[in-house]
Amino acid sequence: MHVKSNQIALTVLFFLAFSSLFPLSFSAANQPRNSKKSTHPTSANRFASSIVFPVQGNVYPLGYYTVSLNIGYPPKLYDLDIDSGSDLTWVQCDAPCRGCTKPRDQLYKPNNNVVQCVDQLCAPVRLSTNHHCSGPDEQCDYEVEYADNGSSLGVLVKDYIPLQFTNGSVLRPRIAFGCGYDQKFSGPTSPPSTAGVLGLGRGKASILSQLHSLGLTSNVVGHCLSGRGGGFLFFGDDLNPSSGNVWTPILPSSSEKHYSLGPAELLFNAKPTTVQGLEVIFDSGSSYTYFNSKAYQAIVDLVINDLKGKKLTRATEDPSLPICWKGAKPFKSLRDVNSYFKPLALSFTKTRNVLLQLPPEAYLIVTKHGNVCLGILNGDEVGLEDLNIIGDISLQDKMVIYDNEKQLIGWVSANCDRLPKS
């Protein structure tokens, strides 16, 4: 969902200009010689393995987690922001662009591989549901809008993505993704230093859904984000812990792009609060956690009231986040401040004994100024309205599993610093 910023505007002129740049006929020029052998699994290895990606990044000061994905033949490496709040993967196009992403060495150049408008993957990536293809040669233009009002506009393409599976095999499925040429970003990190976004949502256009439809992995994705930075991401169900994880259903009303859970009640220091009935979205594309204004204000009041009499004062001069505190001397890490703060938790009321624990390190950061700041923000101030988003800060040091086969989400405390063995 990509909540890091704030802005939007779209242009039709780029559609027209781009249409003339890339002809639609598919070419064998970018096809690896062993593609026929490697892209179609046999019935014997169907869903038999997973894919694990090392993750880079952190909540603070970078603000996002990324994976490096090889695309094309010969393959070229692209750093992509992992986003469980959207489904379409896109990379910056090597074409006239607006809002171009920063890494100019990570541009994707289409090679007669633009997806046609009539392709079944085209309809899910259009904002307009009433578009009718003018002919078989019309290209598939996509448009993605994020919850923070950012957006990406471009054309859908198909190319080879080499993937190493945990059973040792290397396959090169041909996958559709966006080639973006008109991006809107906002906030202090605009544009980000990544080449694009890896969409992990539930829609048909996601890489996960396409790998599943090819019979290469089960429809399961998970991540483990380390509070010390880095971690890992995986497709497939080989890495699910055999014990310890708790599960709760994905809401039937959840859109194809989001993973929504609830209703949930907020607990403060293991005690009930007035905040109940929350629907929350797990969103690895969001740096911080956002609640609606009522829930946010309740959390702020609970935390501030609990800090009365403790040796912390407001650090109004620290611009890192809206609410920060300073001590007698600068803090070096969260270990210095944990004792000042109480744990939060979300209790999922329709699933017995299912809690998402939010210890202080799951909602606080220590800034470069040596202050401690609240990493829970008011969603109303970035246009989220009633959406409640559980972002990276609250997903750290947990293995989170999105099981689209069983329509469940599970999590368990984990050491995310070491890649798992399947």
Automatic annotation (TrEMBL):
Bilayer-crossing regions: none
Active-site residues annotated for this sequence: 83, 283
Coiled-coil regions, chain positions: none
Keywords: Aspartyl protease, Hydrolase, Protease, Repeat, Signal
Pfam families documented for this protein: TAXi_C, TAXi_N
Signal peptide annotation: 1-27
MF term (GO), any: aspartic-type endopeptidase activity
Gene Ontology BP annotations: proteolysis
Domain of life: Eukaryota
InterPro entries: Aspartic_peptidase_A1, Aspartic_peptidase_AS, PEPTIDASE_A1, Peptidase_aspartic_dom_sf, TAXi_C, TAXi_N
Residue ranges annotated for the Peptidase A1 domain, each copy included: 65-412
Family to which this protein belongs: Belongs to the peptidase A1 family.
Name recorded for this polypeptide: Aspartic proteinase Asp1
